[in-house]
């Protein structure tokens, strides 16, 4: 399982750009842009220096067979620009406010159609497994994307230990709901009926790409990225990859998901990345791979299933994806 | 009250430039984050709405303070609102759309349609803001410029139709806009909110 044949989505064999080189280049380009726009002589007041990687170091095995060689999105962007609506709708809110959440100790309730339900401490969920590093693309429904080196375990390995029974057709996930720790849950005008809820069909969850992440860039997950444990489903829009999970339930009926409940005409249960199916607000044909620039926008064509079709297209054989979006 | 007009005008001018100056500073220092096109577009849109609201505050302020200086800077603030809205539109076309997908974008997406209608309404207001045009339009100028009311309502729809989940910000802006329109209705009669209709009947 360690060295697999490279699937088509893994692109070229060149090495991933080391982060330091990448950041230097970015800083250089930033300087050029600044000079071009502001004219000569304007000093750069803020140096977008590399942020030291926070968290505890994790031991892991790199999984090149499950990793893209595309340029990684720098750590500072992955951790300071994202959506985690429990902390606010601004892209900087999670980084600013996620510290108000405490993730230690952490336990997860497992229930529903399985033979080993119960309340599991985080350590018991992850300890028996060896961590892997997988560099996945992440495509947000808002038409931006990143490339992120996740650390974690295959979702299937974790779920199998709960021994789901034959009635388990779907698996449901839930994020922590605690308005004391998650400030946006205190908002009077949120249309989200907390807790945040997501789900996968069982065969989707068992797919080899589905991943339960506990870290990124080699260290434990920053809180704003869904610490201590989050889903990563790279062929679906980012909102499917639910963060800070406290509940896992196996069930026979398809769960309703948070975004589907708010706007069913915009967000479906499947939410597979698909340039052919338009979203009412954002065209899905292209994406801005971040970091992007003002003068040199990093546009690229969006690929069906986010480029992971070889692994997952069979899951949807015979389904009308314009209906099951 | 004897506040000298020229310094006040200059102050209002400089204040109206602040959002753009801050944005340019962020661009120059590379501190707009990893998705600068989106950030620039959003910032300009929000500034445009804020300046539109400031414009609508000028008449009430003049009444409350018994000072006509507010009315004298109203045109300038309104033009700044239009200026920011135009930059907002350009930023969207250049940084978000890259001039592709224009037809679908402007015909299919409700929030874009609301924003575009708002912008269309603002164009004649900006175009007829010169002294010469005010004189030429005479008593038709005022009913024409009441188009700012439907324009600000459309901007608000533009804003709330892009909300993902939390609408706190939209509710706050909405309350301010409703207040600004209602106070006019209360003072000048509700018919005074209807644009384009000649003012003779009263
Ligand atoms: C001319 C047509 C217009 C277009 C195509 C347009 C487009 C956009 C786009 C793409 C966004 C960002 C949406 C998102 O990704 O969430 C936006 C946000 C916004 N626009 Fe416009 N807009 C237009 C006109 C206007 C006008 C005339 C105003 C105000 C005078 C305005 C005010 C705003 C505001 C307040 C926001 C929200 C900014 C934020 O999220 O903080 N827009 N607009």
UniProtKB/TrEMBL annotation, chain A:
<comment type="subunit">
    <text>Heterodimer of a catalytic subunit (MsrP) and a heme-binding subunit (MsrQ).</text>
</comment>
<dbReference type="GO" id="GO:0046872">
    <property type="term" value="F:metal ion binding"/>
</dbReference>
<dbReference type="InterPro" id="IPR022867">
    <property type="entry name" value="MsrP"/>
</dbReference>
<keyword id="KW-0500">Molybdenum</keyword>
<keyword id="KW-0560">Oxidoreductase</keyword>
<feature type="binding site">
    <location>
        <position position="140"/>
    </location>
    <ligand>
        <name>Mo-molybdopterin</name>
    </ligand>
</feature>
<comment type="function">
    <text>Part of the MsrPQ system that repairs oxidized periplasmic proteins containing methionine sulfoxide residues (Met-O), using respiratory chain electrons. Thus protects these proteins from oxidative-stress damage caused by reactive species of oxygen and chlorine generated by the host defense mechanisms. MsrPQ is essential for the maintenance of envelope integrity under bleach stress, rescuing a wide series of structurally unrelated periplasmic proteins from methionine oxidation.</text>
</comment>
<dbReference type="InterPro" id="IPR000572">
    <property type="entry name" value="OxRdtase_Mopterin-bd_dom"/>
</dbReference>
<dbReference type="InterPro" id="IPR036374">
    <property type="entry name" value="OxRdtase_Mopterin-bd_sf"/>
</dbReference>
<dbReference type="GO" id="GO:0030091">
    <property type="term" value="P:protein repair"/>
</dbReference>
<feature type="binding site">
    <location>
        <position position="82"/>
    </location>
    <ligand>
        <name>Mo-molybdopterin</name>
    </ligand>
</feature>
<dbReference type="GO" id="GO:0016672">
    <property type="term" value="F:oxidoreductase activity, acting on a sulfur group of donors, quinone or similar compound as acceptor"/>
</dbReference>
<dbReference type="InterPro" id="IPR006311">
    <property type="entry name" value="TAT_signal"/>
</dbReference>
<feature type="binding site">
    <location>
        <position position="230"/>
    </location>
    <ligand>
        <name>Mo-molybdopterin</name>
    </ligand>
</feature>
<feature type="domain" description="Oxidoreductase molybdopterin-binding">
    <location>
        <begin position="101"/>
        <end position="259"/>
    </location>
</feature>
<feature type="binding site">
    <location>
        <begin position="85"/>
        <end position="86"/>
    </location>
    <ligand>
        <name>Mo-molybdopterin</name>
    </ligand>
</feature>
<feature type="binding site">
    <location>
        <position position="175"/>
    </location>
    <ligand>
        <name>Mo-molybdopterin</name>
    </ligand>
</feature>
<feature type="binding site">
    <location>
        <begin position="241"/>
        <end position="243"/>
    </location>
    <ligand>
        <name>Mo-molybdopterin</name>
    </ligand>
</feature>
<keyword id="KW-0479">Metal-binding</keyword>
<comment type="similarity">
    <text>Belongs to the MsrP family.</text>
</comment>
<keyword id="KW-0732">Signal</keyword>
<dbReference type="GO" id="GO:0043546">
    <property type="term" value="F:molybdopterin cofactor binding"/>
</dbReference>
From TrEMBL, chain B:
<dbReference type="GO" id="GO:0030091">
    <property type="term" value="P:protein repair"/>
</dbReference>
<feature type="transmembrane region" description="Helical">
    <location>
        <begin position="76"/>
        <end position="97"/>
    </location>
</feature>
<feature type="domain" description="Ferric oxidoreductase">
    <location>
        <begin position="45"/>
        <end position="154"/>
    </location>
</feature>
<comment type="subunit">
    <text>Heterodimer of a catalytic subunit (MsrP) and a heme-binding subunit (MsrQ).</text>
</comment>
<feature type="transmembrane region" description="Helical">
    <location>
        <begin position="109"/>
        <end position="127"/>
    </location>
</feature>
<keyword id="KW-1003">Cell membrane</keyword>
<feature type="transmembrane region" description="Helical">
    <location>
        <begin position="46"/>
        <end position="64"/>
    </location>
</feature>
<keyword id="KW-1133">Transmembrane helix</keyword>
<feature type="transmembrane region" description="Helical">
    <location>
        <begin position="170"/>
        <end position="193"/>
    </location>
</feature>
<dbReference type="Pfam" id="PF01794">
    <property type="entry name" value="Ferric_reduct"/>
</dbReference>
<keyword id="KW-0812">Transmembrane</keyword>
<dbReference type="InterPro" id="IPR013130">
    <property type="entry name" value="Fe3_Rdtase_TM_dom"/>
</dbReference>
<dbReference type="GO" id="GO:0009055">
    <property type="term" value="F:electron transfer activity"/>
</dbReference>
<keyword id="KW-0285">Flavoprotein</keyword>
<keyword id="KW-0472">Membrane</keyword>
<dbReference type="InterPro" id="IPR022837">
    <property type="entry name" value="MsrQ-like"/>
</dbReference>
<dbReference type="GO" id="GO:0046872">
    <property type="term" value="F:metal ion binding"/>
</dbReference>
<keyword id="KW-0408">Iron</keyword>
<dbReference type="GO" id="GO:0020037">
    <property type="term" value="F:heme binding"/>
</dbReference>
<dbReference type="GO" id="GO:0005886">
    <property type="term" value="C:plasma membrane"/>
</dbReference>
<comment type="similarity">
    <text>Belongs to the MsrQ family.</text>
</comment>
<comment type="function">
    <text>Part of the MsrPQ system that repairs oxidized periplasmic proteins containing methionine sulfoxide residues (Met-O), using respiratory chain electrons. Thus protects these proteins from oxidative-stress damage caused by reactive species of oxygen and chlorine generated by the host defense mechanisms. MsrPQ is essential for the maintenance of envelope integrity under bleach stress, rescuing a wide series of structurally unrelated periplasmic proteins from methionine oxidation.</text>
</comment>
């Amino acid at each position: 399982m360690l060295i697999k044949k490279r699937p088509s989505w893994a692109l070229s064999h060149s090495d991933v750009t080391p982060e330091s080189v990448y950041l230097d280049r970015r800083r250089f380009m930033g300087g050029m842009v600044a000079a071009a726009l502001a004219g000569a002589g304007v000093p750069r007041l803020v140096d977008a220096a590399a942020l030291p990687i926070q968290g505890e170091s994790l031991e892991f095995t790199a999984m090149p067979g499950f990793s893209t060689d595309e340029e990684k999105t720098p750590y500072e962007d992955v951790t300071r620009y994202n959506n985690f609506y429990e902390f606010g709708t601004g892209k900087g809110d999670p980084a600013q406010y996620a510290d108000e959440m405490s993730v230690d100790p952490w336990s997860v309730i497992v229930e529903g159609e399985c033979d080993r339900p119960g309340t599991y401490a985080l350590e018991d969920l992850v300890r028996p497994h060896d961590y892997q590093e997988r560099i996945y693309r992440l495509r947000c429904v808002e038409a931006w994307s990143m490339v992120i080196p996740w650390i974690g375990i295959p979702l299937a390995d974790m779920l199998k230990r709960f021994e789901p029974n034959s009635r388990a057709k779907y698996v449901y996930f839930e994020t922590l709901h605690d308005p004391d720790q998650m400030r946006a849950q205190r908002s009077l005008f949120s249309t989200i009926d907390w807790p945040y809820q997501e789900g996968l069909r069982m065969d989707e969850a068992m797919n080899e790409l589905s991943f339960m992440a506990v870290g990124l860039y080699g260290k434990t997950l920053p809180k704003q990225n869904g610490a201590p444990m989050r889903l990563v489903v790279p062929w679906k829009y980012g909102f499917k990859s639910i963060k800070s999970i406290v509940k896992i339930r196996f069930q026979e009926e398809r769960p309703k998901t948070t975004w589907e409940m708010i706007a069913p005409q915009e967000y479906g249960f499947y939410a597979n990345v698909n340039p052919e199916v338009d979203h009412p607000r954002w065209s899905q044909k292209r994406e801005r791979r971040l970091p992007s620039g003002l003068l040199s926008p990093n546009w690229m064509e969006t690929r069906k299933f986010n480029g992971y079709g070889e692994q997952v297209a069979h899951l949807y054989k015979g389904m009308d994806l314009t209906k099951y979006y | 009250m004897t506040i000298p007009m020229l310094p006040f005008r200059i102050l209002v001018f400089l204040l109206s430039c602040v959002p753009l100056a801050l944005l340019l500073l962020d661009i120059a220092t590379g501190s707009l984050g990893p998705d600068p096109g989106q950030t620039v577009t959003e910032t300009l849109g929000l500034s445009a709405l804020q300046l539109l609201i400031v414009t609508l505050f000028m008449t009430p302020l003049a009444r409350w303070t018994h000072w006509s200086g507010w009315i004298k800077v109203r045109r300038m603030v309104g033009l700044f609102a239009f200026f920011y809205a135009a930059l907002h539109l350009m930023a969207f076309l250049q940084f978000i759309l890259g001039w592709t997908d224009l037809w679908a974008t402007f015909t299919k997406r409700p929030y874009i349609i609301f924003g575009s209608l708002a912008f269309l309404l603002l164009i004649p207001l900006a175009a007829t803001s010169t002294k010469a045009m005010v004189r030429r339009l005479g008593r038709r100028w005022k009913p024409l410029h009441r188009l700012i009311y439907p324009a600000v309502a459309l901007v608000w729809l533009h804003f709330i139709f892009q909300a993902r989940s939390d609408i706190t910000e939209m509710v706050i802006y909405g309350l301010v806009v409703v207040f600004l329109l209602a106070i006019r209705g209360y003072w000048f009669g509700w018919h005074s909110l209807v644009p384009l209709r000649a003012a003779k009947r009263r």
